[in-house]
From TrEMBL:
It holds the Pfam family CM_2. It comes from Halorubrum tropicale. InterPro entries: Chorismate_II_sf, Chorismate_mutase-related, CM_dom_sf, CM_II_prokaryot. Keywords: Isomerase. This is Chorismate mutase. Residues 46-65 are annotated as: Disordered. GO terms for molecular function: chorismate mutase activity. Residues 6-97 form the Chorismate mutase domain. Gene3D superfamilies: Chorismate mutase. It comes from the Archaea. GO terms for biological process: chorismate metabolic process; salicylic acid biosynthetic process.
Amino acid sequence: MSDTPNAEDRSLDELRHEIEDIDREIVELIARRTYVADTVAAVKEERDLPTTDEGQEERVMERAGENAERFDVDANLVKAIFRLLIELNKVEQRESR
């Protein structure tokens, strides 16, 4: 028997609170990713490397799809989110140069 209550045993308020916590964690992870991406941009600028690295972008998208499958999440949704993150990082990198 599991210690985790099933959906029927949990109130709507408890479930919504859990979603709020998850949303905060997602934003925190996006902030961490953005910080690291900014650091990558600084290294690229120091080394006079191009903003765009298509090979790296392909690897990120491949990992996103693999992780989606591993967690049984729609791969198209996950890839769309990662595409947006990548594009936002590229815009920031271009603007900072």
